[in-house]
Design the sequence.
């Protein structure tokens, strides 16, 4: 029988009745070749799959069925072209389904927040990259593109960026300095919660910052509370008044336009401090006015009422010991001259107090007067120095008490004493205590014979025609002054040289009579001799 699987020789046997021999026929049956192909795929679903080759790797040509399918795993059959001892062949192309990358949700965020970089590996193991770049100012959809070689689809992730809401608040204030300011609201009028800094300050205008609590898309906000400084009400001075006087009602509006009320009620019997309280809604402090009620009294003073001439007096007080102010007439104590003066105090424009007066006595200082004719002495001579007036005095020199309760002081020279002696003598009145210092210079001339004659007769008889002062040559710087009985100067000379013949300064002969002289041994010193000289023509 026919064998189509192997080469076989067939024998032909003629049918009976035919003169024919048997014959043989060999049918060669070649073995079939299996076409071979390189592996294809696998592919991801939807990928482009190239057309399958029409010639196998071992040279068999043919066609493929079914058509390429890139959405599912498919087995394709290769049918060799006729005339080729080849079997059919199959090729399975695996088409893997695409995995969708998955990611955890991100956001939402507030505008401007820091957004972390998106993960480059999905939660189900797909790696890839994102586009576009992160945008923290607006809601954006980002696309994840898997890296090549992974059956995965692109994925998207939308990050919501919420716009920031600005918290709004009702205006607060202004307030007066020191007023109680309520706590600021912790929730804005548009629903934002948060906290404020710094702490409330009721002493100065301050800007406070509201910081929204976390988790809210909101900006910070500021609120300025104005603190108005307090005005001090000013009022004109009121009073003083006298006890029981009628006092007008205090003004309910200050000089600087602050309105308010006063307490307590007016009291005209005692000095009282009244408090002005400003009305509500005015930034003003309280103010006080003290209305002085003066008692009707006689002013009393502690005033020194006895001075010495040229003493520096106290200032007359313009307010008495018992609080009365006023003025004095005369206004200052005058100690330039001795005497008694009445000083009158008149209260300032008020009949609450009577005027007052004080008698102030200014005592003259004692004066030293040399009553002996000369202060030029010979050793052992004395001179008495008196103080003017009828008072008695305490006499002192260089801290030594010379005499107490005395009207004069006796200077006694000694036999060995010569030359100038200067004494600074302080005398203090026993009755009024006024003291004065005077300088007394006494010149002791030693054994020099010195004599001023008490008269001469310039009649031309060459006997005592000139006034000859014995020993005058010892005083070359002397002066002589002559006065008549009426105190008129009639003659003077410097230096005197024993040449006066009884004539006047202009050369006229003086009438006979007694004249008073002053003789100074030295014109530049204080010592002087005085006495009388008689002219007889």
Sequence:
């Amino acid at each position: 029988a026919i064998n189509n699987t192997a080469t076989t020789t067939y024998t032909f046997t003629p049918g009976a009745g035919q003169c024919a021999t048997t014959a043989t026929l060999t049918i060669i049956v070649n073995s079939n070749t299996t076409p071979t192909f390189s592996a294809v795929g696998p592919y991801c679903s939807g990928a482009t799959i190239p057309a399958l080759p029409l010639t196998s790797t071992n040279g068999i040509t043919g066609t493929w069925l079914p058509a390429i399918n890139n959405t599912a795993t498919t087995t394709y059959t290769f049918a060799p072209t006729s005339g080729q001892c080849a079997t059919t062949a199959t090729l399975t192309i695996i088409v893997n389904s695409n995995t969708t990358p998955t990611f955890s949700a991100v956001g939402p965020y507030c505008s401007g927040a820091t957004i972390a970089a998106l993960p480059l590996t999905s939660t189900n193991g797909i790696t890839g990259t994102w586009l576009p770049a992160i945008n923290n100012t607006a809601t954006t959809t980002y696309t994840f593109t898997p890296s090549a070689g992974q059956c995965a689809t692109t994925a998207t992730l939308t990050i919501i960026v919420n716009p920031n809401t600005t918290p709004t608040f009702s205006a607060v204030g202004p307030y007066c300095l020191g007023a109680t300011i309520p706590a600021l609201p912790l929730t804005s009028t548009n629903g934002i919660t948060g906290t404020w800094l710094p702490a409330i300050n009721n002493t100065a205008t301050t800007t406070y910052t509201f910081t929204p609590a976390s988790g809210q898309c909101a900006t910070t906000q500021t609120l300025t509370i104005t603190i108005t400084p307090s005005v001090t009400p000013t009022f004109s001075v009121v009073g003083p008044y006298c006890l029981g006087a009628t006092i007008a009602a205090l003004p309910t509006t200050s000089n600087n336009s602050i309105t308010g009320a006063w307490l307590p009620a007016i009291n005209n019997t005692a000095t009282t401090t009244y408090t002005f309280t400003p009305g509500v809604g005015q930034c003003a402090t309280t103010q006080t006015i003290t209305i002085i009620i003066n008692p009707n009294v006689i002013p009393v003073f502690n005033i020194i009422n006895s001075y010495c001439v040229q003493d520096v007096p106290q200032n007359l007080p313009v307010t008495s010991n018992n609080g009365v102010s006023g003025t004095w007439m005369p206004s200052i104590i005058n100690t330039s001259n001795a005497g008694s003066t009445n000083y009158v105090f008149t209260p300032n424009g008020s009949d609450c107090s009577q005027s007052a007066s004080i008698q102030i006595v200014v005592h003259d200082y004692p004066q030293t007067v040399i009553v002996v004719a000369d202060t030029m002495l010979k050793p052992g001579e004395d001179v008495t120095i008196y103080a003017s007036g009828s008072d008695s005095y305490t006499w002192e020199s260089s801290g030594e008490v010379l005499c107490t309760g005395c009207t004069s002081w006796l200077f006694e020279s000694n036999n060995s004493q010569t030359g100038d002696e200067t004494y600074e003598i302080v005398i203090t009145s026993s009755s009024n205590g006024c003291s004065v210092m005077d300088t007394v210079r006494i010149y002791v001339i030693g054994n020099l014979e010195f004599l001023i004659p008490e008269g001469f007769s310039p009649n031309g008889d060459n006997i005592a025609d000139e006034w000859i002062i014995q020993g005058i040559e010892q005083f070359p710087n002397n002066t002589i002054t002559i006065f008549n009985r009426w105190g008129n100067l009639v003659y003077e000379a410097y230096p005197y040289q024993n040449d006066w013949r009884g004539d006047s300064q202009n050369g006229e002969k003086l009438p006979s009579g007694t004249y008073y002289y002053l003789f100074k041994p030295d014109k530049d010193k204080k010592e002087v001799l005085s006495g009388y000289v008689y002219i007889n023509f």
Q: What stands out?
A: The chain has a mean pLDDT of 88. The CA atoms of residues 392 and 407 lie 5 Å apart.
